[in-house]
Amino acid sequence: MNKTAVLMIIDMQQGMSWPQAGERNNPNAEHEIAELIAHWRANHAPIVHVRHISTEPESLFWPDQDGVLFQDAFQPLEDEKVIEKSVPDAFIYSDLEKWLLKLNTQALVVVGVSTNNSVESTVRSAGNLGFTTYVVGSACFAFEKEDFFGQSRSADEVHAMSLANLHGEYATVITQDEAFALLPKEHTSLRD
């Protein structure tokens, strides 16, 4: 089977767009994610959607309420892989690694939310498992957060630190244009 690049969209659920999710950065991230999805679909390349299903009743991602649903712009197509998780890392308790290995994946291109939580956790595992992993920095976003010492950090600071944690060790942080270039024009469908 030919090698290919897989697009992974993490936790683009309705609850992430609600005000109670917090102050965030990268307001253009959704637009960039939508463009990447359109590019992958036009090239019949594999896409995996990751959705968080919380075990906490107070969570925006508790089952059977609107926050857990994919945002309308990011609804998976019938032939696209969906992974559901209850922890930040999409590799834990899922068949994600097996599915990627079956595809003989050349690269994993990761986008979504939040940069310092589910994106970072999943990307660290991907790198540790030996996948060539890319993070499109402008197609991810984070929320403001207090650091360990109680100092408030802006969403931009949280996002930048998370990308720094990943770049060069677990993944390569790239631009949207660099992500487009990872998908050869002659690509044929490898989806299951």
Automatic annotation (TrEMBL):
<feature type="domain" description="Isochorismatase-like">
    <location>
        <begin position="6"/>
        <end position="177"/>
    </location>
</feature>
<dbReference type="GO" id="GO:0016787">
    <property type="term" value="F:hydrolase activity"/>
</dbReference>
<dbReference type="InterPro" id="IPR000868">
    <property type="entry name" value="Isochorismatase-like_dom"/>
</dbReference>
<protein>
    <submittedName>
        <fullName>Cysteine hydrolase family protein</fullName>
        <ecNumber>3.-.-.-</ecNumber>
    </submittedName>
</protein>
<dbReference type="Pfam" id="PF00857">
    <property type="entry name" value="Isochorismatase"/>
</dbReference>
<dbReference type="InterPro" id="IPR050272">
    <property type="entry name" value="Isochorismatase-like_hydrls"/>
</dbReference>
<dbReference type="InterPro" id="IPR036380">
    <property type="entry name" value="Isochorismatase-like_sf"/>
</dbReference>
<keyword id="KW-0378">Hydrolase</keyword>
